Amino acid sequence: MRKTLFIFTILLLLGSGYAQDVSKVGTAGCQFLKIGVDPRGVAMGEAFTALTTGVPSLYWNPAGLAVTDGQQLVVSDVEWFADIRTNFLGYSLPMGRMGTLGMGFTALTMAEEEITEVVNPEGTGYYWGANSFALALSYARQLTTEFAFGITGKLLTERIWDVSSTGFGIDFGALLYPEVAKGLRLGLAITNFGPDMQFRGGQLDEEVYRPDWADLTGPMEVGLTSMPYSLPLAIRLGIVYELVNTPSNWLVTAVELSHPKDGPEKVHIGSEYGYKNTLFLRAGYKYDRYMYDYRESNTDGFSVGAGIRYAMNGAAYKVDYAMINKGYLGWQPLFSLGLEF
C-alpha cells in the first residue's frame, strides 16, 4: 500500500509541475483532442478520469484499459458545430498478466467549401477544407491489486486547405483503489504531452525570381515559416465513490479537477445510476470559469445521457447517448456503439 501511494504521489507532483509551468490561454492547437468521444463520460460532466474502463480509456485515462474483462470494440459519432463531425474507433485486447493493449483512431472532418473573393463573390471554382486525425496505441497494466498504470502514444496530423502539420503526443494515467476505503477510486491523467507542431507546405511555399540576383538562372523556391503551436496539455485528477453497489442497483458520484494548458481550471461533477447492469442514467455539470462569465443561461455546462447494455451468447452489446449544453451553440449530441466479447 505504501509503495502504491508513493508512485501515485510522484505522478501527481509531476502533473502539478507541468500545470504550474505555463499559464497561456487559448494558445494551443489540436483542439479536436479536447472533444469528448465517449458519451458516458461526457454525460457525467467529463468527471470520468477515475471511473473509465475499457476502450473509452484511450481518451480519458489509459490506466483504465487495465480494468477490462474481455475484448472491446467501440465506435462513436459526435455532431459538433458548423457541420463538423468527430468520429472515434477503438479496440482493446487484454493479454492476461502481461497487461492490456489498446488501439484507437479519431477523425475530425468537415465538408469542403468553395473559396470566394471580392472580385468573385459567387465562387472561384476552388475549394478549401480542414481535418484532423489522431492514431493512438496504448498499453496498461494492473501493477498491484490497488494500482494500475497506462500510457498512450498518439500520431497527430492536421490540415487546413493545402498546409499541414504533423506531430505526436503522449498520455500518462494512473488509477488507485485504496483497500482501506472500499468503493473509493482515485484517478490521475496527464494528456497531450509532446513537442510543438507547425504548419508547412502548400500556400506557404512559392517560387521567387529576381532578375537582379546574380548567377540566378531561374526562380528560387522559398517558404514562409509559420508560428509553432503547442498541444492542449491537461492535468486531470478525479475521485469516484460508489454510493450503492448491489446486483440490482449501482450508483456512483464523481468529482474531478482539471488544469488545461490553454485555459483556466475546471471543475467536473457527475453521477451515474445503473439498473441490473442493463439500463443506465447519467447527469453531470462542468464548471468552466471562462465560459461561466459569458454564459447564455444557467443551464450552460450541464449534460445528460443514458445507456443500454444487453448480454447475449457470451457477448455484450452497448448503446450510449449523451447531450451537453454549449450555450449559444446549443445542445451537442454524442452517440456510440460498443461490443464486449
Question: Gist?
Answer:
The protein is mostly beta strands.
Task: Explain what the structure shows.
It contains four helices and 18 strands. A hairpin with a 3-residue loop joins strand 14 (266-275) and strand 15 (279-288). It folds into two domains: 2-23 and 37-112 and 128-194 and 233-340, Outer membrane protein transport protein (OMPP1/FadL/TodX) (Porin); 195-230, no CATH class. It has helices at 2-21, 39-43, 57-60, 289-292; strands at residues 72-79, 85-94, 100-109, 113-114, 127-128, 130-142, 147-160, 163-176, 184-193, 205-208, 220-223, 234-245, 249-260, 266-275, 279-288, 302-312, 315-325, 331-340. It is elongated and about 85 Å long. It is mainly β and 341 residues long. A 14-stranded antiparallel beta barrel has the order 1-2-3-6-7-8-9-12-13-14-15-16-17-18. A two-stranded antiparallel sheet has the order 4-5.
- Written as H for each helix and E for each strand, in order along the chain, the element string is HHHEEEEEEEEEEEEEEEHEEE
Q: Please tell me the CATH architecture of the largest domain by its name.
A: Beta Barrel
Name the poorly predicted regions: 13-23
As a percent range, the share of strand residues is over 45%
For the record, the CATH class of the largest domain is Mainly Beta
- Calculate the mean pLDDT score and round it: 87
Characterize the overall form: elongated
Task: State the CATH topology of the largest domain.
Answer: Porin
Query: How many H/I helices?
Result: 4
Number of β-strand runs:
18
The structure class reads mainly beta
Report the C-alpha radius of gyration, rounded. 23 Å
Assembly type of the chains comes to: single chain
Distance from N terminus to C terminus (CA atoms, Å) equals 33 Å
* CATH homologous superfamily (4th level) name of the largest domain: Outer membrane protein transport protein (OMPP1/FadL/TodX)
Strand arrangement within the widest β-sheet reads: 1-2-3-6-7-8-9-12-13-14-15-16-17-18
